[in-house]
Amino acid sequence: MKIATWNVNSITARLPQVLEWTRNNHPDVLCIQETKCIDQKFPASGFQEIGYQVAVFGQPTYNGVAIASLSSINDVQRGLPDDEADAQRRLIAGTINNIRIINVYVPNGAEVGSDKYEFKLKWLARLHKYLDNHCDVKQSLVLCGDFNIAPEDRDVHDPALWEGKILCSDAERAALENILQWGLVDVFRKHHKGGGHYSWWDYRAGAFRQNNGLRIDHLWATETLAKKSVNAWIDKITRTLEKPSDHVPVVAEFAD
DNA sequence: ATGGTAGATACTCTA
Predict the structure, then answer these.
(1) Number of domains within chain A
(2) How far, in Å, is the CA of A183 from the C1' of nucleotide B7?
Protein backbone atom coordinates (compact mmCIF):
# COMPACT_ATOMS: atom_id res chain seq x y z
CA MET A 1 0.00 0.00 0.00
CA LYS A 2 1.55 3.25 -1.18
CA ILE A 3 0.13 6.52 0.13
CA ALA A 4 1.20 9.97 -1.06
CA THR A 5 0.42 13.57 -0.10
CA TRP A 6 1.01 16.60 -2.32
CA ASN A 7 0.07 20.25 -2.09
CA VAL A 8 -0.33 20.94 -5.81
CA ASN A 9 -1.13 24.69 -5.62
CA SER A 10 -4.13 24.56 -8.00
CA ILE A 11 -5.23 21.23 -9.47
CA THR A 12 -6.22 22.87 -12.76
CA ALA A 13 -2.83 24.58 -13.20
CA ARG A 14 -1.02 21.37 -12.23
CA LEU A 15 -3.24 18.68 -13.78
CA PRO A 16 -0.93 17.30 -16.50
CA GLN A 17 1.95 17.15 -14.04
CA VAL A 18 -0.14 15.52 -11.30
CA LEU A 19 -1.57 12.92 -13.65
CA GLU A 20 1.85 12.09 -15.06
CA TRP A 21 3.35 11.76 -11.59
CA THR A 22 0.44 9.57 -10.50
CA ARG A 23 0.75 7.32 -13.55
CA ASN A 24 4.50 6.96 -13.05
CA ASN A 25 4.43 6.42 -9.29
CA HIS A 26 1.11 4.60 -9.06
CA PRO A 27 0.22 5.32 -5.42
CA ASP A 28 -2.82 3.51 -4.04
CA VAL A 29 -3.90 6.81 -2.50
CA LEU A 30 -2.97 10.40 -3.35
CA CYS A 31 -4.03 13.12 -0.91
CA ILE A 32 -4.13 16.52 -2.59
CA GLN A 33 -4.17 19.98 -0.99
CA GLU A 34 -4.77 23.48 -2.32
CA THR A 35 -6.93 22.32 -5.20
CA LYS A 36 -8.30 25.91 -5.49
CA CYS A 37 -11.24 24.48 -7.38
CA ILE A 38 -14.96 24.07 -6.79
CA ASP A 39 -16.20 20.48 -6.79
CA GLN A 40 -18.12 20.86 -10.07
CA LYS A 41 -14.92 21.89 -11.85
CA PHE A 42 -12.60 19.32 -10.31
CA PRO A 43 -11.00 17.35 -13.19
CA ALA A 44 -12.31 13.99 -11.94
CA SER A 45 -12.38 12.44 -15.42
CA GLY A 46 -8.61 12.90 -15.81
CA PHE A 47 -8.10 10.76 -12.73
CA GLN A 48 -10.73 8.23 -13.79
CA GLU A 49 -8.94 7.75 -17.11
CA ILE A 50 -5.85 6.55 -15.25
CA GLY A 51 -7.82 4.30 -12.91
CA TYR A 52 -8.47 6.55 -9.92
CA GLN A 53 -11.67 7.60 -8.26
CA VAL A 54 -11.79 10.88 -6.37
CA ALA A 55 -13.48 12.41 -3.36
CA VAL A 56 -13.33 16.20 -3.37
CA PHE A 57 -14.00 19.10 -1.04
CA GLY A 58 -13.15 22.40 -2.67
CA GLN A 59 -14.05 26.07 -2.88
CA PRO A 60 -13.21 28.89 -5.30
CA THR A 61 -9.70 30.40 -5.34
CA TYR A 62 -8.40 29.18 -1.98
CA ASN A 63 -7.81 25.96 -0.03
CA GLY A 64 -9.60 22.80 -1.17
CA VAL A 65 -8.64 19.14 -0.61
CA ALA A 66 -9.18 15.89 -2.48
CA ILE A 67 -8.38 12.19 -2.29
CA ALA A 68 -7.61 10.09 -5.36
CA SER A 69 -7.66 6.33 -4.87
CA LEU A 70 -7.37 3.08 -6.84
CA SER A 71 -9.85 1.41 -4.45
CA SER A 72 -13.22 2.67 -3.27
CA ILE A 73 -13.31 5.54 -0.78
CA ASN A 74 -15.81 4.87 2.01
CA ASP A 75 -17.33 6.91 4.83
CA VAL A 76 -16.15 10.19 3.34
CA GLN A 77 -16.18 13.13 5.70
CA ARG A 78 -15.84 16.69 4.47
CA GLY A 79 -14.64 19.32 6.93
CA LEU A 80 -14.31 19.22 10.70
CA PRO A 81 -17.56 18.30 12.47
CA ASP A 82 -17.68 21.67 14.25
CA ASP A 83 -17.03 23.72 11.08
CA GLU A 84 -19.42 26.55 10.27
CA ALA A 85 -21.39 26.11 7.04
CA ASP A 86 -19.12 28.55 5.15
CA ALA A 87 -15.86 27.33 6.71
CA GLN A 88 -12.68 27.12 4.67
CA ARG A 89 -12.42 23.69 3.10
CA ARG A 90 -9.33 22.14 4.62
CA LEU A 91 -10.10 18.53 5.58
CA ILE A 92 -11.39 15.46 3.82
CA ALA A 93 -11.35 11.96 5.30
CA GLY A 94 -12.23 8.56 3.90
CA THR A 95 -11.64 4.88 4.53
CA ILE A 96 -9.68 2.96 1.89
CA ASN A 97 -8.74 -0.71 2.27
CA ASN A 98 -9.61 -0.47 5.97
CA ILE A 99 -7.23 2.44 6.50
CA ARG A 100 -8.75 5.70 7.72
CA ILE A 101 -7.16 8.50 5.69
CA ILE A 102 -7.39 12.07 6.99
CA ASN A 103 -6.14 14.63 4.49
CA VAL A 104 -5.58 18.15 5.84
CA TYR A 105 -4.52 21.56 4.63
CA VAL A 106 -3.57 23.31 7.87
CA PRO A 107 -3.93 27.12 7.76
CA ASN A 108 -0.70 28.94 6.91
CA GLY A 109 -0.99 31.48 9.71
CA ALA A 110 0.53 34.42 7.78
CA GLU A 111 2.55 35.94 10.64
CA VAL A 112 3.07 35.10 14.30
CA GLY A 113 0.60 37.11 16.38
CA SER A 114 -1.78 37.85 13.49
CA ASP A 115 -5.47 36.93 13.38
CA LYS A 116 -4.62 34.22 10.87
CA TYR A 117 -2.06 32.84 13.33
CA GLU A 118 -4.70 32.58 16.06
CA PHE A 119 -7.01 30.90 13.54
CA LYS A 120 -4.27 28.38 12.74
CA LEU A 121 -3.73 27.48 16.40
CA LYS A 122 -7.47 27.14 17.00
CA TRP A 123 -7.83 24.98 13.87
CA LEU A 124 -5.07 22.66 15.13
CA ALA A 125 -6.80 22.38 18.52
CA ARG A 126 -10.03 21.47 16.73
CA LEU A 127 -8.19 18.86 14.63
CA HIS A 128 -6.86 17.37 17.87
CA LYS A 129 -10.38 17.29 19.30
CA TYR A 130 -11.58 15.59 16.10
CA LEU A 131 -9.01 12.82 16.60
CA ASP A 132 -10.05 12.45 20.24
CA ASN A 133 -13.77 12.27 19.54
CA HIS A 134 -14.07 10.66 16.12
CA CYS A 135 -11.00 8.51 15.48
CA ASP A 136 -9.65 5.26 16.88
CA VAL A 137 -5.96 5.30 17.76
CA LYS A 138 -5.92 1.48 17.66
CA GLN A 139 -7.09 1.48 14.04
CA SER A 140 -4.85 1.80 10.97
CA LEU A 141 -5.05 5.53 10.33
CA VAL A 142 -3.07 8.12 8.39
CA LEU A 143 -3.09 11.84 9.06
CA CYS A 144 -1.34 13.54 6.17
CA GLY A 145 -1.18 16.75 4.23
CA ASP A 146 0.29 20.23 4.27
CA PHE A 147 0.71 20.90 8.00
CA ASN A 148 2.38 24.28 7.40
CA ILE A 149 4.70 23.57 10.33
CA ALA A 150 8.31 22.37 10.41
CA PRO A 151 8.30 20.16 13.53
CA GLU A 152 11.98 20.52 14.47
CA ASP A 153 15.09 22.50 13.59
CA ARG A 154 16.41 19.60 11.49
CA ASP A 155 13.41 20.26 9.21
CA VAL A 156 14.58 23.81 8.49
CA HIS A 157 17.40 24.93 6.16
CA ASP A 158 18.41 27.81 8.46
CA PRO A 159 16.95 27.34 11.96
CA ALA A 160 18.43 30.60 13.26
CA LEU A 161 16.77 32.60 10.48
CA TRP A 162 13.41 30.89 11.06
CA GLU A 163 13.48 30.82 14.86
CA GLY A 164 10.13 32.01 16.22
CA LYS A 165 8.83 32.74 12.71
CA ILE A 166 5.66 31.45 11.10
CA LEU A 167 5.87 27.70 10.28
CA CYS A 168 8.45 27.28 13.09
CA SER A 169 7.14 29.10 16.19
CA ASP A 170 7.01 27.35 19.56
CA ALA A 171 3.20 27.50 19.83
CA GLU A 172 2.77 25.92 16.38
CA ARG A 173 5.28 23.19 17.16
CA ALA A 174 3.62 22.52 20.53
CA ALA A 175 0.20 22.22 18.88
CA LEU A 176 1.64 19.76 16.38
CA GLU A 177 3.42 17.77 19.08
CA ASN A 178 0.11 17.48 20.97
CA ILE A 179 -1.49 15.96 17.88
CA LEU A 180 1.44 13.56 17.47
CA GLN A 181 1.06 12.56 21.13
CA TRP A 182 -2.50 11.44 20.40
CA GLY A 183 -0.78 8.34 19.03
CA LEU A 184 0.85 9.01 15.68
CA VAL A 185 4.28 8.33 14.19
CA ASP A 186 6.03 10.56 11.65
CA VAL A 187 6.55 7.88 9.02
CA PHE A 188 9.21 9.84 7.10
CA ARG A 189 11.29 10.20 10.26
CA LYS A 190 11.11 6.45 10.88
CA HIS A 191 13.34 6.06 7.85
CA HIS A 192 15.39 9.27 7.67
CA LYS A 193 16.97 10.88 10.74
CA GLY A 194 19.12 13.59 9.19
CA GLY A 195 18.52 17.18 8.13
CA GLY A 196 18.30 18.57 4.61
CA HIS A 197 15.00 16.88 3.72
CA TYR A 198 12.44 19.45 2.65
CA SER A 199 8.99 19.34 1.07
CA TRP A 200 8.45 23.05 0.31
CA TRP A 201 10.54 25.86 -1.11
CA ASP A 202 9.22 29.40 -1.51
CA TYR A 203 8.75 30.46 -5.12
CA ARG A 204 10.57 33.68 -4.29
CA ALA A 205 14.24 34.63 -4.01
CA GLY A 206 15.56 31.45 -5.67
CA ALA A 207 14.77 29.39 -2.59
CA PHE A 208 14.84 26.04 -4.41
CA ARG A 209 18.08 26.80 -6.23
CA GLN A 210 19.73 27.38 -2.86
CA ASN A 211 17.83 24.50 -1.22
CA ASN A 212 16.29 26.94 1.25
CA GLY A 213 13.42 24.65 2.14
CA LEU A 214 11.30 23.45 5.02
CA ARG A 215 9.75 20.06 5.75
CA ILE A 216 6.13 21.05 6.34
CA ASP A 217 4.26 18.27 4.51
CA HIS A 218 3.82 15.17 6.60
CA LEU A 219 2.45 11.67 6.63
CA TRP A 220 1.75 10.38 10.11
CA ALA A 221 0.33 6.98 10.99
CA THR A 222 -0.98 5.20 14.06
CA GLU A 223 1.38 2.60 15.56
CA THR A 224 -0.70 -0.27 14.12
CA LEU A 225 0.03 0.98 10.62
CA ALA A 226 3.43 2.60 11.21
CA LYS A 227 4.96 -0.73 12.19
CA LYS A 228 4.15 -1.95 8.66
CA SER A 229 5.95 1.02 7.11
CA VAL A 230 8.69 -0.23 4.80
CA ASN A 231 9.86 3.06 3.28
CA ALA A 232 9.09 6.75 2.98
CA TRP A 233 10.51 9.45 0.77
CA ILE A 234 10.14 12.98 -0.55
CA ASP A 235 10.00 13.23 -4.34
CA LYS A 236 12.05 16.37 -4.81
CA ILE A 237 12.31 15.91 -8.59
CA THR A 238 8.85 17.42 -9.18
CA ARG A 239 10.17 20.79 -7.98
CA THR A 240 12.59 20.89 -10.96
CA LEU A 241 9.81 20.54 -13.56
CA GLU A 242 8.47 23.47 -15.52
CA LYS A 243 5.75 25.37 -13.63
CA PRO A 244 6.10 23.30 -10.47
CA SER A 245 4.06 23.45 -7.32
CA ASP A 246 6.01 25.02 -4.46
CA HIS A 247 5.50 21.70 -2.61
CA VAL A 248 6.61 18.19 -3.60
CA PRO A 249 5.02 14.80 -2.87
CA VAL A 250 5.71 12.90 0.33
CA VAL A 251 5.25 9.16 -0.11
CA ALA A 252 5.07 6.21 2.28
CA GLU A 253 4.89 2.51 1.54
CA PHE A 254 3.30 -0.03 3.89
CA ALA A 255 3.40 -3.83 3.84
CA ASP A 256 0.01 -5.41 3.21
C1' DA B 1 11.76 46.69 7.07
C1' DT B 2 10.89 44.75 2.63
C1' DG B 3 11.09 42.17 -1.55
C1' DG B 4 11.06 38.27 -4.17
C1' DT B 5 6.95 34.54 -7.36
C1' DA B 6 2.76 32.09 -8.38
C1' DG B 7 -2.33 31.27 -8.79
C1' DA B 8 -7.20 32.74 -9.17
C1' DT B 9 -10.05 36.47 -9.73
C1' DA B 10 -10.97 40.59 -11.09
C1' DC B 11 -7.00 44.70 -10.49
C1' DT B 12 -6.19 42.17 -4.67
C1' DC B 13 -5.62 38.44 -1.69
C1' DT B 14 -3.25 34.39 -0.07
C1' DA B 15 0.66 31.81 0.38
Answers:
(1) 1
(2) 36
